[in-house]
Amino acid sequence: xxxxxxxxxxxxKIEISILNQKEWDILRIINKKLINNIHIDIMDWYFTESxxxxxxxxxxxxxxxxxKLHLHFMVNxxxxxxxxxxxxxxxxxxxxxxxSNYKKDEYIKFNNNLRNKGIKVWLAxxxxxxxxxxxxxxxxxxxxxxxxxxxxxxWQSFIEDCWKKIQFFKDNYNIPIFIDWWVNNIIYDKYSExxxxxxxWSYLFKI
Length: 207
Known about the structure:
By secondary structure, this protein is α/β, with parallel strands linked by helices. The protein is built from 8 helices and 8 strands; from the N terminus they run βαβαβαβαβαβαβαβα. Strands 1-2-3-4-5-6-7-8 form an 8-stranded parallel β-barrel. The radius of gyration is 16 Å and the shape is globular. The N and C termini lie close together (10 Å).
C-alpha cells in the first residue's frame, strides 16, 4: 500500500500538509478517520517564489469540518489572508513567519486577537534564519514551527543543520516544537522523542 509507511507513525504526532489543488484527491484516499489534523500551506508569490492555489472556496469543498485546521501563511499581508479564512470555525493553529511585513506591536496584537478566538499561534522559522534574529520574540508565540527545507520549493531533502535549532529550542525554551516538510520514517524515529509533531508533505507523496 502506497501509504503504509506513514501508518507506522503515531497519528497524534502527524499533520498532513496540502500545498496545491492536485493533492486534494490524494488526501481523499487517506483514511481520514486516522489523522485529525490537516495543515494548509498558503503562499502569495511575494513572500515566496511560488503561489499555492489553495483558496477558501476550494477548502470548503473538502468538507473538513470535523478536522482541526492549521493554516500556514507564507505571505506578506497576514491580515488580508486571515480575513479570507476567518470564517472557518475549526482553525486550531495559525503559523506565520516573522519576516512578514509586521512590526512588533502589530504581531503582538494580532497574536492576542487570535488567542481570544481560541487559535494558537506559531512562529515559523526558515532554515536560513539565525536564532539571534528571533530570540526576543519567541515567547510571544505558543509554538515553534521549524522548516526543514526552503518552504516554497518542493522535493527537497531534510536540511540536517535544522537539527541544531531543534535541539537548541528543546534545551532552552519550554515551548512545543513542530517540524515541517521533508519527514521520512528515519527522521521520525530520530527526532520523535523531542519533536511534538511532524508536518508531512513530500515524504507522503514520494513513498
